[in-house]
Amino acid sequence: MTDKAPFRSDLTGSFSTPSGNNPTVAMIEAGYRDAGMKARFINCDVKPEALGDAVRGARAMGWVGFNCSLPHKVAVLEHLDELAESAAIIGAVNCVQIRDGKLIGNNTDGKGFLTSLRSVSDPKGKRIVLFGAGGAARAIAVELGLAGAAEITVVNRDEGKARTVAGLVSEHTGAEGKAVGWSGKAKVPEGTDIVINATSIGLGDAEALPEIDLETLRPGQIVADVIMNPPMTHLLREAKGRGCTVLDGLGMLVNQGIVGVELWFGRTLDAGVMQETLKGIFKVS
């Protein structure tokens, strides 16, 4: 069949600032090439005051969709027409579909983590301890609750923020949300199935370690870290040495990209191709 638009590409991309160190562009474009798609992913540095112009420009130019990263995940809400269920609960959007000119907001942070987690365990019925209460933690908590987790304990320095996230879990999902203040070395309670570091501790520093009492980790637990660089963080190395199953942040990032492209095009990219691209960028063997 003849291509009726041989010199036109479907446009997608990311709006954030700063944007220069975002590896998503390389990962998704590798996936597009592998799938033989005539699509591009454009990494745009968009300042807060220009977000509205960028969103209107994407719609005007016929973009298929775009990602929103810091600092736009909440500010973008006022420019959208609809929100998916989890995005409405979370109160933040990082992926926008443009369908028939309508802007639909989604949040793939938690969905990406959930897909990665399911490669080693189903969260249904599990007791989970989540360190952190920022945007990523909020999204992960809600998605885990919607996926059937029994209990999610949110641990954070600012206990008020932990209560906010725990409240979202209890109010909008079937899971029980609990909040705990983080002071000194946090202990992982007996009976915990899954431990998640959703803080920024460890980003770019292979020796940084969240203040967690490592002696309270137990063999057989799943320990996950959202940090993607380096993928094998200090926490994961310690957990692996104690007989835990570990889950790095690369899987979350890859699956976020896959979910986003599925929303935009209804097509599933090759996770292996995208993961190998990231390993090359981060020099992981």
Query: Could you say what the CATH topology of the largest domain is called?
Result: Rossmann fold
Strand line-up of the largest beta sheet? 2-1-3-5-6-4
CA-to-CA gap between the ends?
41 Å
Query: What is the count of DSSP helices, taking H or I runs of 4+ residues?
Result: 9
- The domain tally reads 2
The low-confidence runs, each spanning 5 or more residues with pLDDT under 50, are none
Instruction: Bin the helical content.
Output: 25-40%
Average pLDDT score: 95
CATH architecture of the largest domain: 3-Layer(aba) Sandwich
Main beta-sheet annotation: 6 strands, mixed
Computed CA radius of gyration, to the nearest angstrom: 19 Å
What's the total number of strands? Answer: 12
Name the CATH superfamily assignment of the largest domain: NAD(P)-binding Rossmann-like Domain
Measured by DSSP, the beta-strand proportion falls in 15-25%
Descriptive report:
The structure is a single chain. The protein has helices at residues 24-35, 51-60, 85-90, 109-117, 135-146, 159-172, 234-241, 249-265, 271-282, and strands at residues 10-16, 39-45, 65-68, 82-83, 95-99, 102-106, 127-131, 151-156, 176-181, 194-197, 222-225, 245-247. The model has no long low-confidence stretch (mean pLDDT 95). It is globular and about 60 Å long. α1 (24-35) packs antiparallel against α9, α4 crosses α5 and α5 packs parallel to α6. It contains nine helices and twelve strands. The protein has a six-stranded mixed β-sheet with strand order 2-1-3-5-6-4, with helices on both faces. With 285 residues, the chain is α/β, with parallel strands linked by helices. The chain folds into two domains: 10-107 and 251-282, Rossmann fold, CATH 3.40.50; 111-247, 3-Layer(aba) Sandwich (Rossmann fold). The N and C termini lie far apart (41 Å).
